[in-house]
Amino acid sequence: MRVGLFGGTFDPPHLGHLVTAVNVRHVLKLDIVVLMVANDPWQKHGTREVASAVDRLAMVEAAIKGVDGLVAGDDEISRGGPSFTADTLIAMGNRYVDAELFTIVGDDAAATFGTWQRAREIAKLSTLVVVDRPGSPLVPPSEFKWNRVEAPRLEVSSTDLRQRFVDGRPLDYLVASEVLSVISERGLYGAEKYSVEKLGAKKS
Ligand code: ATP
Ligand code: MG
């Protein structure tokens, strides 16, 4: 089995995450790609409020529902505490015995190699997959076995999406309508201010 680990805060999950996951799965012929929801994104401490892990998991589950080969991962949430990729790879190795593991990161995450905790363990347990746009290759440090997947980068970020809730710009198509439903039901990002219709989500 070939298993991809695509970790993130997913606050909220968006089109860019999903397009990346399905394209990497296709190019590298992975059986599944696990969108692993960070329990406690320590790299974001002190910078902003993060939606609860349970709410972010519910959004990821809604986003991948019915999509072949995408799985919502809750190992980091079940483990609790700060999330470290090396621990998650160990957990995934236990869950998917004998699987070949791939750690998938977008270009912005790949640019922060220097700050990664336990990079050597990550390099030992998995093949790194850097997803970046055509023509701007990012080269990881030499200890990594790595692969590069070119994908068009859709200029969407969770940061911009959260701002859209504040200033009322449209979210349609950037966020799956199933995710918008979860946001609306749970009143995330101040969404209780908006009607379900205004968010573009279909009522379930
Ligand atoms: P934030 O703006 O809050 O940092 P984000 O949109 O960057 O959120 P994260 O949850 O931080 O999303 O990112 C998870 C993973 O998804 C990272 O590996 C990141 O590089 C990748 N990623 C984020 N946005 C995109 C995008 N538009 N296209 C491709 N990959 C992306
Ligand atoms: Mg980010």
TrEMBL record:
One GO molecular function term of this record is:
adenylyltransferase activity
| Membrane-crossing segments per the record | none
Residues covered by the Cytidyltransferase-like domain: 5-164
What InterPro entries does its record include?
Answer: Cyt_trans-like, NadD/NMNAT, Rossmann-like_a/b/a_fold
Q: What are the entry keywords?
A: ATP-binding, NAD, Nucleotide-binding, Nucleotidyltransferase, Pyridine nucleotide biosynthesis, Transferase
User: Keyword Acyltransferase on this protein?
Assistant: no
Pathway the protein acts in: Cofactor biosynthesis; NAD(+) biosynthesis
Xref: Pfam families: CTP_transf_like (PF01467)
Question: Which biological process, per GO, is one annotated for this protein?
Answer: NAD+ biosynthetic process
Its protein name is Unannotated protein
The upper taxonomy is: unclassified sequences, metagenomes, ecological metagenomes
